[in-house]
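re: ur msg from earlier - yeah i can do the glutamic acid complex, just paste it... oh wait u already did. ok heres what im feeding in:
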Amino acid sequence: MVSAPNGTDPGVRVRFCPSPTGNPHVGLVRTALFNWAFARHNKGTLVFRIEDTDAARDSEESYQQLLDSMRWLGLDWDEGPEIGGPHAPYRQSQRMELYQDVARKLINAGHAYFCYCSTEELDARREAARAAGKPSGYDGKCRALTPEEVAAFKAEERTPIVRFRMPDEPITFTDLVRGELTFTPENVPDYGIVRANGAPLYTLVNPVDDALMEITHVLRGEDLLSSTPRQIALYKALADIGVGNGTIPAFGHLPYVMGEGNKKLSKRDPQASLNLYRERGFLPEGLLNYLSLLGWSLAEDRDIFSMEEMVAAFDVADVNANPARFDLKKAEAINATHLRQLDVADFIAACEPWLKAPYAPWRPEAFDRAAFEEIAPHAQTRLTVLSDITDNVDFLFLDEPVRDEASWNKAMKEGSDALLRTAREKLADADWSSPESLKEAVLAAGEQHGLKLGKAQAPVRVAVTGRTVGLPLFESLQVLGKDRTFTRIDAALARLTA
Ligand code: GLU
Ligand code: ZN
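and the outut:
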């Protein structure tokens, strides 16, 4: 027997089972994260399964992206693609024969039947039921066809779908997030499990694999809540025909994530794309920290934590059923805090991708690592996302500073040329090993022209860096060096007096 340390249950088996369609989105990542944290907390097993039974929508590219995203996020799995496991294969497209076999067994045992109704017939009956104020789901017409009726349909060359026979009693289960829920038969009609062309549907393959892979807990989005009573009924039928070990998993439905304007965040929302966060330079731990707050919290007033802390504390029972709001500003603030918490060396390493093409605008050979390492600690406390590093340090590596006209017009006023000339004189006598001394020089130049430090340093900053905002000016000047600082002040003076 495996003994369970401090209330954990190593028998826990959860799954993350995305369909490889399109780009991974934050809602999907939240689902993966909660399953991962639950598995790790319990010292259980995370199964990663690919639900690629829809050849028309699934793509290999999307499959690769899913794997790459999970790896980038650090959400490791115990069974699944590239690892294998006792229930391999973990791509449903490689398990088709198995589903066909299960469908046959369900039909033979009377849990499923062929339905010959055409879409037009189904639509017409649904409309009629609606008009009569009756439940408008499938009416069970093909539940008990006579051999003559079947022969007649076959003669018309109709190809049937396979429909699962729902029990005629209500289905009750205790949702781990929402408590006890009951679904009445009128609301859960018989449903299709195999298409007319023989292709098994999500409604079949998902519970079949959960049963075969001995999944104990299903944590997934609230949008799938309506399929849970169907799946529970199918589970019971699977147990009856000897597929799986007969235990029905516990279900927990994670709250909706709301985007702009109180609408559900859709996967087509640009804000929802995981790749966007990667490209902007979110740290995986920053993004995951934020996404964990979409329906869960470590403790009141505790927004910042590590994944180790989340794993130690995570319990589905603490997930909140209320919709969660996706707040980009908060995500950025949390990421910024994680950036600040890095060791400088790790911060420098994390910046690496943005210090070269296609992000960096400078010539590769103009990059000076020593200068970057000197300025990096000042950037670390100011960045929200890593991609901001490029704009913040480009003044060091471009031959000439960027030319941002809005900044120029804002900083360069009547008298700026005189100020710049004085600043240049004072800076010439300053101690360039001390940012404090450089500041004294600009302060003194400002005083001579009746300007406070803020007003006096703006033209210097724009002359040297091209922008009105950036890293601390005097540290920047020091790293840039006296010669290049003066060349740039001279160029600005030339432009001002032209
Ligand atoms: N492949 C399904 C989806 O991505 C999985 C749903 C589930 O977790 O049951 O929506
Ligand atoms: Zn029918």
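cool cool. Residues 166 and 233 are 7 Å apart (CA to CA). ping me if u need the other ligands too
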